[in-house]
Amino acid sequence: MPLTRRSFLAGALAAPALGVLAGCAGTVVQPGDLSRLRMMVPASPGGGWDTTARTLQRVIQSSGVARNVQVFNVEGAGGTIGLGQLARQDDDALLMMMGLVMVGAVDTNDSSTRLTDVTPIAQLIGETELIVVPAESPYDDLASFVEAWKADPRGTPIAGGSAGGTDQILAGLLAQAADIDPREVNYIPYSGGGESLSALLGNQVAAGISGTADYGSQVTAGTLKGLAVSTAERSGQVPDVPTIIESGFDVEVTNWRGLMARPGMSEDARADLIGVVQQAHDTDEWAEALANRGWLDTFQTGDEYGEFLAAEETRVRQVLIEIGLIEE
Question: 242, 235, 189, 182: which is closest to 211 by C-alpha?
Fold first, then answer.
């Protein structure tokens, strides 16, 4: 498979609703069960997964899809600690938020639990990645930055999120597209967008990669320069910033997020959970949340989502091998 182009976005493949809550069989919709619906966020509060989960929580409750949803955090190892806990659960009323970062974290953390060990429910949203440089940087576009980067990859530090996550995957793909050895990329992982932002504002790194939620307001304010966004189309958050493809490099990445459930659940119980998420997705409140946060609607459910996950695992693993983070 050629590595000059990667699209981690399967597209907005909206599936039909799988039953009406009042009529579905299974554990989630029985009297009392819906009121105890829980959502695990396998990361610290305040990050992308947490924000997505709590936004979904509010929509489910305010729209009347369910009366009460509890969100709780289980931190550590790129989400794989929470993944391991989910695999040991027998609760059909439990969802786990996850995303592209977890796909890589399973391998980089040598997790004994893999995504194939749990049950795919739905992909929810996608977020655009943004490549930036400090305001004082001499580079005004991606091509000029890449030219300097290619001349001295080790001397051009790039800040981003956790090792093996979406930001580093994007850095590796862009390096490949620019004929730079991905193993030579000087990638500096930070625990979150706030820390990498501080490094950029302090001119401690040459460039940074993160979501538009982390860097977009700084680009708008002029404290950072936006070089490119990672999706096929420009982002409404930073509409003046061109795409990587527009800039001459055939690379596309979307940082998607979705939901998983425990292994071994019945088809009826799975359909009930999908139905809850489908109904929330179809509300005006969810559409408003997507618009306000600049999220892409990448909704897909069930087996279709499972097939997408399997393809992601294969693609991400190959990138991580070529970056040098894992061995074949």
Answer: 235
How many helices and strands in the chain, by DSSP H and E?
10, 10
Residues 6+ apart with CB under 8 A from 38: 69, 70, 71, 72, 91, 93, 94, 95
Q: Which of 191-195, 250-254, 318-322 has the lowest mean pLDDT?
A: 191-195
Distance CA 291, CA 311 (A): 28
Q: Distance between CA atoms of 127 and 123, rounded to whole angstroms? A: 12
Cβ-based burial of 114 (10 A; exposed 0-12, middle 13-18, buried ≥19)? middle
Residue 258, pLDDT > 50, answer yes
Q: Residue 249 has which token pair?
A: 């490099």
C-alpha 122/C-alpha 260 separation (Å) is 7
Bridge partner residues of 159 (DSSP): 188, 208
Q: Tell me, what DSSP letter sits at residue 243?
A: B
To 10 degrees, what angle do helices 284-293 and 48-62 make?
150
Cα 138 from Cα 58, distance rounded (Å): 44
Q: Which position has the token pair 């909704």? A: 299
CA neighbor of 61 nearest in space, from 52, 70, 49: 70
Residues paired with 125 in a beta bridge: 257, 297
- Our measurement of the distance from residue 55's CA atom to the centroid of its chain's CA atoms, rounded to an integer in Å, reads 15
Which residues have CB under 8 Å from 13's CB, separation 6+? 298, 299, 300, 304
Q: Which residues pair with 39 in a beta bridge?
A: 71, 95
DSSP element (H, E) containing 211? strand 207-211
Tokens of 113: 């639990």
CA distance 114 to 87: 9
Neighbours of 314 (CB within 10 A): 11
- Pairwise CA distance, residues 17 & 13, whole Å: 12
What is the enclosing helix (H) or strand (E) of 300? strand 296-301
Nearest residue to 97 (alpha-carbon basis) of 60, 147, 138 = 60
Give the tens place of pLDDT for each residue, 103-116: 999 998 889 999 99
